[in-house]
Every structure is written in structure tokens, then in C-alpha cells.
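Case study B.
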Amino acid sequence: MTAPVIEVEGLRRTYRVSTGAVRRRTLEVEAVRGISFSVGEGELFGLLGPNGAGKTTTIKMLITLLVPTSGTARVLGFDVVRQSREVRKRIGYVFGGDRGLYDRLSGLDNLRYFAELYGVPPREQKRRIFELLDLVGLNGREGERVEGYSRGMRQRLHVARGLLHDPPVVFLDEPTIGVDPVGARELRATMAALVSAGKTVLLTTHYMFEADALCNRIAVIAKGQIVAEGSPSALKAMVTDGVVVELEAYDPPPGGADALRRVPGVARVTVEERDQAQLFVVQAAAGFEGTPELIAALGDARLTRVATREPTLEDAYVALVEGASG
Amino acid sequence: MSRAARLIAIGWRHHVRNLTASRFFVVTSVFLPILLSTVAFFMFRAGAREGTLLYASLGAGVMGIWSSTLFGSGGAISWARREGTLEVLVVSPAGYFWVLLPQTIATASIGLYSLVATLVWGRLLFGVPFAIAHPLAFVVSIPVTVLGLGMLGLLMASTFVLYRHANALSNMLEFPVLFVSGLLVPLSALPVWVRPVGWLLAPTWGMRAVRAAALGGNPWPPMGVTVGLAGAYLTLGALFLRLFLRLARERATLALT
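Model:
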């Protein structure tokens, strides 16, 4: 790995939550529990995890919006707590969803104001803004009020805002959430272009295919802890280098998953509900030939599909997250 | 233009445009002066002393500036939290002070319209006379008062950054300040223990300056006090903002969730 641009060491964040109107009780919730990782220059690093895993809390600590409860984090060598001004000058921050913009103003008005706040030299502002409008495909729509923009357009405007001052480090917090497939694909192309332009990117997502397609390295985070870290292919291999058998069954017997787990060679079984059917995803060792035993283990269940395939990053992810849940 | 001057000028224009694009704000701005001039007329008609109606009308006009300023400090921060812009602004390299300063000046200066509209409605609806004793001093006293109120708004806003329910706090503060500053009734009519509180508030001195310029008297000393208090509010506001932003980052209160 090249020189670290983002260095995180034992980062923790606890929230205090008060409940009850009369008898107030204060609870402590540990959102991030001592995570460590580093991201090299020009890398696209993914933080992958389910909702509530601690991804956004981590990113908010790195962009100086939250003070860590303990641990340290540095961006380009600057401490995110003690040197927050230096960090802010050098980072771009894009978050998912349709908030964070001045809805009553036009896209251009939004970008002009943020260009000023981000210290873009006055003479360069116009050129830079139109360059970015071109990059995110909003050229020609910049004069319209943001409240009339679709979710995808708002998201692209967020990207343009985050890049106004040409930051060397960009934090993307679930940037494709809620965006239609075509818009999401365009956004992913923009993310890939950022890395090609030499920027260091930290991306949080819960879309496995997105992490698989874009990231050089991934850290899987669950319940505030990193449960695995490595390249997408290394993560896949970490969970299984074998095969995956999928069985879609109607009316499976109670305890069907346990029966499948008892078949020799089976490493892991997960169950997904599919309307009235259940999809059993069986991860097994390489060279597994026990598919007939799997079918037999489901007894009188009506099987509508049995398929064998290579493991995907999603299989690795589900296994890691479920493993963390205990 | 220096970076600070640009941040103030462009921030001011941005916040004026954003506020005036709100139908709620525009409707409120149209009706509030009519309401205020009506209240002022009925409260002071009974007094029937010479100059009393203009005295009341000016008070009502400055009340409009104060309402607008509070909207800018408390309401606008709550709005930014709801819109999700507060976090983006806080992490901007310029620093949140350079967002808040033009924002409070913008809302206070929008309140200028309220002053003018209150005087015009007072004249049209109730025949309030408009004879100004010292026109030059009157013209100077208005921006000085706007500055004083704007900086008080900045001081308050610096604490509102910490609280998710800043809007409720700003609403609570609207009427106590109106009374204690002598905008509605003369300070001399209030209990003795209240008066020192009024002396610490720029609206008290700004109001005195505006009234002295309009009705006769020396407006320059109260104008000087207003400017001095504005400077003190600005310094304290900058310090508090630094402190409360740090606390907000520790307590995670910048976002709604």
C-alpha cells in the first residue's frame, strides 16, 4: 500500500441517549467500538456494513463532525480533533439522501455559495462550477430550483458540491442510496473517475456489488467493529473458496436449515424469505458433491429451483455480518 | 475585496435570496407590519400626547426587525438542521462563523423592510405623522440599530447551535426582549430591577437613538452604545460559537438523527 492518507487507530464513539419523560434514564450506546484501518493514496476504500453498523458515525468522525470518544484519526497527517481546520480544507464530503441542499434556490446558486465557503478563488469559480456540472451531467439544469430535482439529480449536485475545491481526499457516505439503477451506474462511473484522477476515496455502502465493482480494499463493519478487511477477492476467499448451492423451497419442514447444516461438507446455511417460498443458501467446501443429500434433507418440500454457483462478495458479507451477530 | 468581506457580502446575498424565496417568510413579512402598526396605534392612541403615535410606530417597526433577527438566529438554524445543511456548513473550510455572521445581518436587514412597512401602514391606516427631527441622524441610526440587533442575534445563535430545539428557545425570547428593551412601553414604566437588563441589550439603545433622531434629542450617545454593544456581542458570539460547536461535535447535536 502507498503512504497512508487516512489513518484510524482504536476509534470509538459512544452516544448518550435519554429515554422517558418523567423518569429520565440515560443510556450509553456504543456506535463504533475501537476500529483501526488505514487508506493509502489513490485508493478507493470501502466500509461495508448493514444499517446501524457504525459506518456513518465513522465517516462523521473522520470529516470532523463528531469528536471520537477515544482513539485517534488522521487525514493527510492532520488530527481530526486538534487540526480540524486543516482537515476540512483538504476533504470533500458527499452523503446520500436528498437533504443537505438549499431546496428553494437553484443548483447554480447552491454551488456558487459553497464555492465561496470552500475558498475557490473568485476568478476560477465559474469555470470550476461548469466543469463539475458537466462531470455530474447537470449542465443545462443548473438554473432550476433544487426542490424540483429528482433524487438522482440532487445526489449528483451533492457530488459536484463535494468536489468544488478539488480536494485530494473524498468521503462518500452511501452516495447511491435511493438513486435509480441508471443514475446509480452513472454515479459509480463518477466515483471510478475520481480514483483515476488520483484522489483517495473512502466509500461507505451496504450494496455489495458496488463495493465489489469499485473498491481496492474493503473493511466489513458490523455492530461497530471491523470483522474483516481485505481486497474483494480476499474477502470472498476468507469465507469460502468452495461453492454455493441455492435451493428455493415451498413448505420446507421445520428445522430445514439445521437439517442442511448436518449434511457433510456444508460450512454455512442462510435462509432468505421469498414471498411464500424460502431460499436456502448453502455454502460448502470446494468439490462438494452432496446436492442430492441437501435435497433429501428438505424432505417433502416442493423445490422450484436448485442451482450451484461461485461464491459472491454478498455471500462473504452475509456470513461475516451474521458471524458478528453471534 | 478581502476574503472576509466577500464571505459577508456573498453570504448576505445568499441568505436574503434563500429567505425571500420562502412563501411563509414573505407572507409573514407582509402581514406582520400591519399587525404591529395596528397594535401600536391602539396602545398609544389613549396617550394622546404629541409625538406619541410616531414614538409607538417606531417601536413597532424595530419590533419587526427583532422578530426577523430571531427568525434568522433560532429559526434558520432549526431550518438548516431539518434541511441537513447545518452539518455541511459546519465542516466547510471557511468555518461556521462566516456563515452565521452574514445570515444574522441578512435577517436583520430584511427586518428593515418591516420598519419601513410599519411606518407606511401607520401613516396610511391611522394617519401617524412622519416628521423627523434630525433626518441625517435618523438615516444613520437605522443601520446602527440593525447592526446591534443582528449581533445580538449572532450571540444567541451561537448557543442555539448546540440545541436541537433552538426554534422553541428563540420563540420564547421574542417578547421578553421586546418589553425589556422598551420597544413597546418606555423603560421607565417597567420595574426598577428590569432596567439594568435592558441596558445590556442593543435594541434598548438602538431604539433610543432612532426615537431621539425622529422626535428630538441627542441620538449620538445611544448610537455609540449600540455600536459598542454590537462589538461586544460579536466578540462573545465568536467565542461562544467556538465553544458550542465543539460541544455539539461531542454531543452529536448537529444533525436531527
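The first strand of chain A starts at residue 4 and ends at 19. The remaining cases will be described in the next quarterly update.
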